[in-house]
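Now read these lines:
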Amino acid sequence: MSPSTPRFGVNYTPSQGWFHHWLDFDLDAVRADLDSIAALGLDHIRVFPLWPLFQPNRTLIRPRAVEQLVQLADAAAERGLDVNVDGLQGHLSSFDFLPAWTRTWHRRNLFTDNDVVSGQAEYLRTLAAALADRPNFLGMTIGNEINQFSGPPHPDPDPITPAQAGEWLRRLLDACEQGAPGKLHLHAEYDAAWYQDDHPFTPAHSATLGALTAVHSWVFNGTAQRHGRTGTATEHHAAYLIELSKAWARDPHRPVWLQEVGAPAPLIPAEHAAGFTTATVANALDCADVWGVTWWCSHDVSRSLADFPELEYGLGLLTNDRKVKPAGEAIARTVEEWRGRTYAPAPRTTALTVDIGDGDGTGGGGHGTGPARSTCAPGGAFFEAFARLTEAGVRPTAVLASRAGDRDHLAARGITEVVHPDEVR
């Protein structure tokens, strides 16, 4: 079940050196960053080790790097911040970070080669074990949107099947659990899992594997281009993904973590970032069973660093010199408004049926291919019908077509009306 009060946090992007700070780890600089985060009233951070720096050889996990991660977690605890750790980086802000033992002359599939996956499992187990006794350690996320390595549009993908994706996820989640039993261990994909036809990481994987479901909401995926910066679909995109994920969940109250969401320029101009931030969080918290909201990101990327996509430089709640930006002020206001409030959104009684072309995709480990997932993407019939219902004030949720006649399932979710996308005009 959802907590009585939602969690509010931020994805920690170091103000000095970005994630390259692990090369020149400066605990005092980290502490100053964490002070600026805690001052916003936030209660947790998501942290990103760089995989090649922590495990430069398949059988070498650098003790000093692990020690620095623990130091960061302890510094966060001193400031009242809990910590989630993403292990396999993997991919961050358009850059790939993969160890040499997986590339070029040692090229092996990241998801199916047994030696590679064994190395990944040992790495995740080691990080989890190092933090297992820390009360502020929430748990591990396998990696950041690592599904982008599994197929197009990645320029050099490691192709797999949905069955192989499920096997890989289970093996690495088990490794996290072995390292830190009982913590919140999960995986997190970018929205191809929900929107891209035949993508090997499926909605059922996201909604059934791990301690909770993670969604990453970015309106540069066609939503803002189609609906504009203040469009209903744009300001409700995060809420849409939260509700969409519930269609595949076996537990009608499975927690959903809005683990990444940001205000990307120029689609969301800087002068409108605060308004977008306030609306997005408010709409997300109109959904039941939300574990928390974790904004992307804490600090801007320094202009001294080259070759980032332009939008990446300005996503922070704080500037590079730790000054609070309007979006940061908006988050701080939201946190203060929620302090002491009870989190109990009204049930969403109207459900829109979603059919991605292979039944519910939850049988057999979620191995359905989802050949019609694009119906859920911006411009798709389901997406646009959901947006129209939302604009009309209906507060819809999603139900699989295969469950639309299951009275027990509907009752458990508080659904009293089921609508097909074709019925929404």
Notes: Residues 350-423 form one domain. The chain has two domains: 7-338, 350-423.
